[in-house]
């Protein structure tokens, strides 16, 4: 079996998703496979692996072979409510007994924030590098995941806007992004844990040298700017960056695994029937440094 990566043709738009064949994720990857995956991530930004019927341990082994992981400190479920270990984010609508949670369950309402365009863990001082999402059970319809290419979006900015965004620093918090949907039900402890952090609006990829717009629904302000002006500008930039020509929509098949680079893409979940089971698990590689250390 030899690993190969072919572009997914989004019909007349720039390629930034690739489909990977010739690798079995039930087995720890070889050094050559690890190198091919990193090269593929640099070239594309989103990689799709079909037919990978793996468990949590296999997902963790594959993820750890790519780099150090972050822990799931951004999840809202209390430790005694968790279904998976702290090394995985539970991207499901299930409780500890694998029952679909109620429509108004706090964990579900918090999780609906994933339907806003974001970059994972941009609310942490050291944000995420790759996210690796494994589909264990998918709903019969809906629940796609969309990705937007923040390198192409940066490249398409006019010269004056590029100059304006070049050195801006945004403040990011999950309290802000959840507030957009009217979710404000946070404890004092959660407010302290998720206090705002600083991230550059333009960052440079350390391997490819390409610049990208580092946007996220978690961004609720720009340092030195009046809040309404900052939010209006961030909205405009997000609208620009998520035009259909920059978007790949992933339609899940059972046992798909999709990996994306949070430094160069945003993503969002799409709605699905809240009574249907959707069980996805995410491992996340840490960026190891702040975006503040990845100046353009
Ligand atoms: C995530 C996420 C989107 C989805 O796992 O980080 O945002 O479609 N998922 O579940
Ligand atoms: Mn996410």
What's the architecture in CATH terms? 4-Layer Sandwich
Ions, cofactors, ligands: which are bound? N-oxalylglycine, manganese (II) ion
Largest sheet: 7 strands, mixed
- The helix/strand class is alpha+beta
Task: Tell me the overall shape.
Answer: globular
Low-confidence stretches: none
Kindly report how far apart the N and C termini lie.
Answer: 39 Å
Number of strands: 15
Order of helices and strands: EEHEHEHEEHHEHHEEEEHEEEE
**How many DSSP H or I helices?**
8
What do the pLDDT scores average to? Answer: 96
Helical residue percent? 10-25%
Number of domains: 1
What is the CATH topology?
Double-stranded beta-helix
Hey, roughly how much beta strand do the residues contain?
15-25%
What does this structure look like?
The protein has 296 residues and is an alpha+beta fold. It has one domain (4-293): Clavaminate synthase-like (Double-stranded beta-helix, 4-Layer Sandwich). The protein has eight helices and 15 strands. The protein has helices at 31-43, 56-66, 106-111, 150-155, 159-165, 174-180, 188-193, 227-241, and strands at 4-7, 17-21, 46-49, 89-92, 128-137, 145-149, 169-172, 197-200, 202-204, 211-213, 219-222, 247-250, 257-261, 265-269, 279-286. It has a seven-stranded mixed beta sheet with strand order 1-2-3-13-5-15-4, with helices on one face. A three-stranded antiparallel beta sheet has the order 12-6-14. A three-stranded antiparallel beta sheet has the order 8-7-11. It is globular and about 50 Å long. It binds N-oxalylglycine and manganese (II) ion (MN). Manganese (II) ion binds next to loops.
């Amino acid at each position: 079996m030899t690993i190969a990566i072919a572009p997914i043709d989004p019909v007349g738009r720039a390629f930034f998703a690739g489909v990977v064949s010739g690798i079995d994720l039930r087995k720890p990857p070889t050094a050559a496979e690890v190198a091919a995956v990193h090269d593929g991530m640099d070239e594309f930004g989103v990689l799709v692996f079909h037919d990978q019927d793996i468990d949590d341990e296999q997902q963790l082994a594959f993820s750890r072979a790519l780099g150090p992981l972050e822990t799931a400190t951004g999840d809202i479920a209390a430790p005694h409510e968790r279904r998976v270990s702290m090394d995985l984010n539970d991207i499901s609508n299930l409780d500890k007994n694998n029952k679909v949670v109620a429509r108004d369950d706090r964990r579900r309402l918090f999780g609906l924030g994933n339907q806003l365009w974001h970059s994972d863990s941009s609310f942490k001082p050291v944000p995420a590098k790759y996210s690796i999402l494994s589909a264990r059970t998918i709903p019969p319809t809906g629940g796609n995941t969309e990705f937007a290419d923040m390198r192409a979006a940066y490249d398409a900015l006019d010269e004056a806007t590029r100059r304006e965004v070049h050195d801006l620093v945004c403040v990011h918090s999950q309290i802000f992004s959840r507030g957009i949907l009217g979710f404000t039900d946070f404890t004092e402890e959660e407010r302290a844990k998720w206090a705002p952090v600083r991230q550059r609006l333009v960052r440079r990829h350390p391997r490819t040298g390409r610049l990208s717009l580092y946007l996220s629904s978690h961004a609720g302000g720009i340092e030195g700017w009046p809040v309404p002006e900052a939010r209006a500008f961030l909205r405009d930039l997000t609208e620009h960056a998520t035009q259909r020509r920059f978007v790949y929509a992933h339609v899940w098949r059972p046992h798909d695994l999709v990996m994306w680079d949070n430094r160069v893409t945003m993503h969002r979940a799409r709605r699905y029937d809240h009574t249907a089971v959707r069980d996805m698990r995410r491992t996340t590689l840490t960026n190891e440094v702040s975006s503040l250390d990845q100046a353009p």
